[in-house]
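Researcher: Re-running this chain for the archive, since the previous output was lost when a drive failed. Same request as before.
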Amino acid sequence: MARQTATLSGALEHSVDFAREAWREAWAPLALQALGVAMVYLSFQAPLGFGPAVLMFLTGLVMSLAACPPAWGALYRLALGVDLGEIGPGGLQWGETETRLTMVWGMFLLLLAVIWFPLSAAAALAFYLFRDAGGVYLGLFGKVQIGFLAALGIMVAGGFGWSWLLLRLSLASAATVVEGKVMMFDAWSLTAGRSLKIGLAWLILHLPTVGSWGLALLLTLIEAKASGTVKALPLPEAIGTALVIGAVSGFMQTPLAIGAFGYFHRPRPAEAASPLRFAEGL
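Model: Regenerated structure tokens:
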């Protein structure tokens, strides 16, 4: 199916507009996700004992992961205008759509293992085979072992290949919601000729997340410089930073990304009768 001509600026504008709707209609799973991420960060940075830190980490991890399928299901319903019934209170629900989305992400994890385990083994083998091949001088890096460069080259090439594969499959979740069945490699054609735009939009929309983590790193460095050692942040600073990171992750990153994927999934106006359509007026 031919897809609508989409622009990078259109994707960014639509994502911002969609985020406002997401805050109104699906605030509950986004809040749970934000709180879970905040707890995970806080477990590492707050001055807690080992036991409380582990408990907080596990609680936050389970909470953030459990909130993902309801958040995705609610947001994709809103973004795609698919007649799958009303979303739950505040966006909390679990039905067939959420189960299918969980299966899609399970398939992504399986694909990750299938690709990266052999790549890691190949990199380790290259390092071993060239362990006695000497080294080369690389300016500021000094002498670098050829075995290390060979292993690094394999991992970097794998990273580029993996990124390209993710971009080509980036609309799998949107297609799964629309089609009412698990779509993985079937969604390959939806990104034909638009992978670069999708990748650029994804990178730009992740700038808030990069900024929040940059703030956390800056505070850690300031505290380390003041105390002369790297240690946990004071509790008020740790809580404040955790809330910022959680809010950005839950209330910004998730709706912005799904808004962009929904935008790129739109068909042409002439295909309005197709089941792959946005709600009227979007």
